[in-house]
Each structure stands twice: as C-alpha cells, then as structure tokens.
Design a protein that fits this description.
The protein has 33 helices and no strands. By secondary structure, the protein is mainly alpha-helical. α8 runs antiparallel to α9, α23 packs parallel to α25 and α28 runs antiparallel to α29. The C terminus is likely disordered.
C-alpha cells in the first residue's frame, strides 16, 4: 500500500470515529497523522478531540508546540486561551488573548482566522479588538467594515454597529443606498426593536451635531419610512426643505408618494399641500396638485361613503383643477377619478360618461390607457342601465387585447354582465376559460363567480333563487342599496336554508359599509365567518372585517385577530400577503416601545 493510500485510509477511519463521537480512537489516529503531516486540518481535529476528552494539558501542549513552529498563526493564542477558559482560568485566558492582539501587525493574513477564532469561543469583544487593531496598524479606518458590523450585530452592540455605518457614510456619502440596504436587512433579522431604537437615537444625535448635513437628514427620512412613521418622515422632509430650499421639495414629494402608497392619507395630503404652497413655478407643483386630489379620492374609496357636503366640496375642487390644469394626458388620472366620483357617489352617470368621452378624445392617448378607459366607460353604462352598450365596449377591448391582462378583464366583465342578465350558461362558459388566467386576481374572481353560478344551478333547477340574487347583485352594483337589501331579503324569506346564504351575508355587509353603518357590517361579516368557515367567501369576510375594524371601528385588537386567523386558517388565500403585511405593521405600531418612540 502506497503512503498516499495509507494516509487516505487512516484519515477516513479517523473521520469515522470523530463523526461518531468516539474521540479516543479518533485522537490516536489524528496524533499519528499530525505527527507525519503536521497540517492545520489534522491539528484542529486533534485539538478538538482532546477538548472533547477533557485532555486539557494535551490540548494546551499541542497548541503551544504548533505556535513555536508557526508564530504567524495567531489563532493558536486563542486555542491556548480557550483551554484556560474551559478550566475557568480567566486571567490566563485573557493573557493569551492579549498576546494575540499584541502580535497583530501590518500583515493582515492572520486577521480573518484570528477574529473567527475569537467568535468561535464566544469572545466577540476580542474579535472587535482584532479588527480595530488591524485598522490602527494599517491606518485604514474603514478596513473590515462588514466584518465589524457583523460582530457588533451578533453581540447586540447596536450603537457600535450603527456608528460603523454612519462613520462610513461620513467618508463615502455615495454609499448611502448600499448602507440602507444593509441596515434594512439587519433590522429585519433583529430579534426585537433594540436595533431600530438604536438607529433612531444615533440618527437624532448625528442630525443634532450636523444640522446642515443633507445626508443624515435623508437617512432620517429613510429610517422613518422603514418604520412606517410617516408623520415623523414628513417632519424630517420639512427640515430638509427648510435647510435646502434649492431642492424644490424633492423629499416632501418622496414622502407624499410613499405615504400615499401605504394609505397614510393625512401625511400624503399635507406633503402635497406643502409643495403646492411653493407656487406654480415649482417643478413638482403639477404632480402635487394632482396628487392631493388623488389622496382625497382614495380616502373616499377607503371609507366607502361620503356625505353630500363633502361630495360638493370635492366635486368643485376637481372642477377647479380642470380649469387650472386643463384636460390633457397628464390630467387623465383626475378625469377618470372624477367620472367615478360622479357616477358612484354623485348619482350623475351622464356627467361621468361625458368626462370619459373627453378622455377618449385626447389626441395621442396611449392605446392601453384608451382601452382601460373604455372598460371604465362600459362599467358606467352598466351602472346606468345601458347593458348592451356596455357589452359592446367590453367586446371591443377584449378583441383588441386578446392575449393580455386587459383582454382578460374585459372578458370577465362581459361574463359578469351575462350573469346579471340571467344568461348563466354563457357566463359559465366564459368564466371556465378565465379560471386559468395568468392574473391571480382575475382567476380568483372568475372562480368565485363560476362557483356561485354552478353551485346554485345544481341545487335549484329553476334558477329562481339565483335569478333573484343576480337581480339584487345588479342593484347593489348600481348603488340602489335599499332595493338591493330587499332583493337579498326575498331569498332568505322564501327558504330556511340555501347555498346562497353566505353570499347574501357578504352582500349585506357591503351594503352597510356603503351606508357607513360599520358596526352592522362587522356583525354580518362575523356571522359569515362563524357559520360558513369553509365556504369560498370566508377569507374575503375575514379580510374585510380586519380592515373594517382597523380603519373604521378603531378596534386594532380585533383587526389583528382577523388577520392572524386568515393567515392560520386560510394560508393559500389571495389575501395572505396583504394580511401578513397589515398584521406586521399593525402589531409593530401597537407595541408599547413603538408608541413611546412615536411620542
């Protein structure tokens, strides 16, 4: 047997014993191997085997002997010190560790292994000393930045960790984006809020020390946004705007956009107003003028209702905006929202249709936007009772967009129109195709309507109940709320039990929400979840109930309970991601530490 084959065979046997915890046999074999070959791998295996066996003298002797032959292998000092630690000889261990630090020079080759050796024995403080001493010896203040951040995070010294980031930012402002990514990752991995609290305090300190440092003010805004503290972000954006007026309100606009996306409408509206106050010559004036109205429209959609006084005020504000900004490609979003406002909240379908007709007459309007508006116009015509005109528009859009999302939306709308018109067989055939749509939302809507039709076609061969339900559903769509309620009640009065009962509870809850009778809506949704937990509407009801309690009933405890139940009981729900985000945000905002920080 050749020496190489003999070595391999002996090494395999040693590894087998070591892996099975038979350290005495492993130690004997590694002693022989190390005596012959003296490589680092055999040394580490033999050293660890001695420790497992409690043979501390042998382990210490092994490390000392190796260090004499390899004086640049500084991690061997840590191996010596570790032996003393295991024997509770702290002073002797400290002396070994200090010797390792003293031996650090401008030669950086041993540094990674030395720092890792300290980490492996739980001495993060000496790992930090290793990196800082290397910086000092080489006069490189940013050396081992990532490694130090990792050690500080592991030992929970978040103040030192944050200072590392900010010291780098002082030297290299261009690294801001990279630093933000790393800090965000660290905050997500942190087990509690101590890291985010530390970052907040460090930023406050740095801004106080450097009030004219634009970088730190931007970091403060970024951090506030990460924490979903949009009011604080707006305060910081105002500070930036006051100190750097030449920026033209860029940070205010940024906060407005992000706050709007996160449904923090009060903050978004205030940010847009602050930009508008700068005057029409400001480069962001137009976007802010549009943005402020978009916020108000979103607020209505979120609240499901608006009183006549507020409606009149908002309507006039739209008209003032059109008089000032005109009707053009840039104001198309306002024109579309105005149409929805007039039809669905002002009961003026003709004014809404006229506004969308104006949109379609805008020259050089993008084809996709034109077809989107056609769909909205079809919805308005259906809302106003012009069923066949609506169907014609849907077919036009479907034909022009056969293989994309817009075409699928048009097909779904036409199928639903057929359902309203009691043409259940045709609607079912169209919905069957849409259930395989690439859009999850359309596929889910198609599946729900398809099941609604098929389940009740099977249970009621005359379709009487389904026809009554479709009629009431159309009345609900047209905002004829009292008539719709009466239509749904007809079904419950005619029979003691029917598969439509869960759907009726959902529709009645939607009616009460449109009427701003939120407590009644909550009660109806709760009944649906309690009595029909396995029906297809259960997860819809939970999501709606969660948002209702969070937004209108100021019952964050019940909202959290609903979000959690949805995530646990309906993990494959289309709402799962949205519910998880709302759950995490709501839970964080309601924690005592965050409430105190917000104050």
């Amino acid at each position: 047997m050749s020496p190489a084959v003999a070595q391999q065979s002996q090494e395999q046997m040693a590894a087998y014993y070591y892996g099975n915890g038979e350290f005495e046999q492993a130690a004997q074999l590694y002693e022989s191997l190390y005596k012959t070959y003296s490589n680092k791998y055999y040394y580490q295996r033999l050293y660890n085997a001695y420790l497992k066996l409690g043979e501390y003298k042998d382990a210490l002797r092994l490390a000392e002997k190796r260090l004499k032959g390899n004086p640049k292998e500084l991690s061997l000092y840590v191996d010596q010190g570790n032996v003393y630690l295991l024997q509770d000889k702290e002073k002797k261990a400290k002396k070994c560790f200090d010797n390792a630090i003293e031996e650090i020079s401008t030669n950086l080759a041993p540094i990674p292994d030395l720092a890792m050796a300290f980490v492996n024995v739980g001495r993060y403080d000496y790992a930090v000393k290793t990196y800082l001493t290397a910086r000092q010896k080489t006069r490189s203040p940013q050396l081992y930045f990532s490694e130090l951040v990792g050690v500080y995070q592991a030992m929970g010294d978040y103040q030192a960790m944050t200072n590392e980031y900010f010291d780098l930012l002082d030297k290299q402002p261009g690294m801001m984006a990279s630093i933000q990514v790393n800090m965000q990752k660290s905050m997500l991995e942190a087990p509690d809020s101590r890291l985010s609290d530390g970052i907040r305090q460090a930023l406050v300190d740095r801004v106080r020390q450097n009030p004219n440092n634009h970088t730190y003010l931007e970091m403060m805004i970024w951090f506030s946004v990460q924490q979903k503290d949009f009011a604080f972000a707006l305060t910081q954006a105002q500070a930036v705007d006051a100190r750097f007026p030449e920026k033209g309100g860029e940070q205010l606009l940024r906060v407005a956009r992000i706050a709007f996306e996160n449904e923090s409408y009060d903050v978004a509206a205030e940010a847009y107003r602050l930009i508008m106050q700068k005057g029409q010559e400001n480069p962001h004036y137009f976007e802010s003028r549009v943005g402020e109205l978009e916020v108000d429209f979103a607020r209505i959609n979120h609240n499901y209702a608006i009183d006549s006084k507020d409606f009149s005020i908002l309507k006039q504000r739209y008209l003032d905006a059109f008089a000032e900004l005109g009707k053009n490609e840039r104001t198309v979003p306002l024109m579309r929202h105005y149409a929805q406002l007039m039809a669905y909240y002002g009961d003026d379908v003709q004014a809404a249709v006229s506004m969308l007709d104006d949109v379609l007459e805008i020259p050089r309007l993008k084809a996709a936007i034109r077809d989107e508006v056609k769909l909205e116009l079809g919805d308005l015509l259906l809302f106003g009772g012009s069923i066949w005109d609506a169907s014609l528009l849907y077919m036009q859009v479907e034909k022009a967009n056969k293989n994309d999302l817009l075409g699928a939306q048009a097909k779904y709308k036409n199928a639903k129109l057929s359902y309203y018109n009691h043409d259940f067989d045709w609607a079912s055939s169209q919905l069957k195709v849409l259930r395989s749509s690439t859009s999850k939302l359309i596929a889910n809507d198609a599946m729900e309507l398809s099941l609604l039709i098929s389940d009740n076609m099977e249970d009621d061969s005359t379709y009487t109940m389904l026809e009554l339900f479709a009629d009431a559903d159309l009345l609900l769509y047209r905002n004829q709320l009292d008539s719709a309620w009466e239509g749904f009640d007809q079904i419950t009065r005619r029979t003691l039990s029917h598969p439509l009962f869960d759907e009726i509870l959902m529709r009645k809850a939607q009616i009460r929400m449109k009427q701003a009778r939120y407590a009644e809506a909550d009660s109806l949704l709760q009944k649906l979840v309690d009595f029909y937990p396995t029906d297809i509407t259960a997860d819809d009801a939970l999501m709606l109930m969660a948002e209702l309690n969070e937004t209108h009933l100021a019952n964050s405890a019940k909202a959290l309970e609903c979000y959690e139940k949805l995530l646990v009981d309906y993990p494959t729900s289309l709402y799962a991601d949205r519910a998880r985000k709302r759950y995490n945000t709501l839970k964080a905002s309601n924690s005592p530490m965050n409430r105190e920080a917000g104050n």
